[in-house]
Amino acid sequence: MDIPTLALISGGIAILQAVAFCFAWALNRNAPGLGRWALTSLLCGSSLLLVLCRQLFDSPLLTQWLPTLLAWVGTAVLYQGAAEFQGRRAVLKWPILCCVPALAGYLWFGWAAPQTWLRPVFYSTPMVIFLGLTAREWFREQREGLRLTAYCSGGAAALYAFSYVFRAWLIVIHEANPEPFAGGAAQVLVFISTLLWLLCWTYTALLLINQWHILEKMQFHEAQLMAQKSLIHTERQLAIRERELLSERALRQRNFLLRDLHDGIGGMTANLVLLVSMGRGEEEDSERHELMRHIEHLVVDCNREVRSLMDVLEKGPVDWGQFLQELRQHAEHLTAGHGLQLDWQVSGQRPTHSLSDAAARLSLLRCLKEAVSNLARHAHADNATIRVRFFKLCFGITVRDDGIGLQNDKVADSGGRGLSNMRRRCEELRGRVTIHSHSGTTLRFIIPLPVSLHPIAKKPPFYDLANA
Fold first, then answer.
1. 450: cis peptide before it, omega within 30°?
2. DSSP assigned state of 180
């Protein structure tokens, strides 16, 4: 069999393989390892063409040493591509260390030593190492649809590596000439095995890329199906959480209504009852007249409270002066009706912005009115003090009396909601209230500025799910 013809055919197929791999890589940039395989084809094809040039001119550097280095680098890149296709990182440290003495031996027996028949042993060592590593990577493939083709690729790489071992053995035992065009079974074997490797590797590599695309599409469709199932489950959970949210919202609105009725109309009607009972035992007309005046004021306040409930969302911003004036009038009428002396004080620079949050304004006003109402109804005091002090980022209100104080830290109002409602409203306004009972009762409110309402009800799971 004509060896130059075999070499020419192998070189031509190598170049065609390189072109095919380059086109495949250009069209499939996402395919792992394909770019390295295209580089392998270019290096190996260039190596075979340089070997063919030995028939035209004699240049050991271009036709012997450079093709050898290109073949070694090509097989190393082939191993890297196989590892990348498996999703692993190629280990090159110890294979390169093994190639260093092989390179030294190849150079020595190629230039200095007369035993040139030993040169194929050192030439074949890096080829066998990297082809063996490539075969090991293919044999580790476990993905369905890729396993059979990968095993075929690994078997072809293993057989190609064995051909290098067998060629080196033939040359060594016969002490034959290692030149590729010297003739003999060893030279024929290397070109035939190279030709078969090129054909087999081209077919299996392209088949691997095709099956990889099919596997990717199957995984994509499975992911879509799982996403649809997850979406359906999420929609069901959202519907359940939405019903829970509506139920909780209805419960919260009912609690708000109960609290508003207690703090607003409830407190006023309780004071009306107290004033009426006081008027029954009063014999002097002037005192009765004064009680009737306070009763009239409370009735007006009841009417105002009902209107506040209706137009809290429609009412525009209220100036701080107007707000404090309303609170002061309420406190003066309420304390005067129960015979208390009221000391009202305002200090600090008032905020330039108005009370624009109607719900927050109404909640703050009811909180303070509840404090004044409890003072007038339960303190049994002679004097009351209300101090309002403005700071840069907050304002404080102190309501103090010289009455009997709290008994066993419990509020004496009949409904039992006053203190808890006050605390709740302060928390919703991001503030706090402290209560001291020593020589009377002292309530201190600290509210951040600007005043705004922040409901503190526990978030339903619907929100957590929606945010996720």
1. yes
2. T
pTM: 0.52
What is the residue-wise DSSP string for 199-253? HHHHHHHHHHHHHHHHHHHHHHHHHHHHHHHHHHHHHHHHHHHHHHHHHHHHHHH
Q: Where are the domains of the chain?
A: 3-231, 239-461
Q: Which of 436, 449, 428, 456 is nearest to 263 (CA)?
A: 428
**Are the CB atoms for 301 and 271 separated by under 8 Å?**
no
Local structure of 1: helix, strand or coil: coil
Q: Supply φ then ψ for residue 76, to 5 degrees.
A: -65, -40
Sign of CA dihedral 132, 134, 140, 144: negative
- Is CATH 3.30.565.10 what the domain over 239-461 is classified as, yes or no? yes
Low-confidence ranges of the chain (pLDDT < 50): 313, 408-415, 458-468
Tens-digit pLDDT profile for residues 100-117: 888 888 888 877 777 778
- What would the pLDDT profile of 129-168 be if each residue is shown by its tens digit? 999 999 999 999 888 888 899 999 999 999 999 999 998 8
For tokens 């207690």, what's the residue? 262
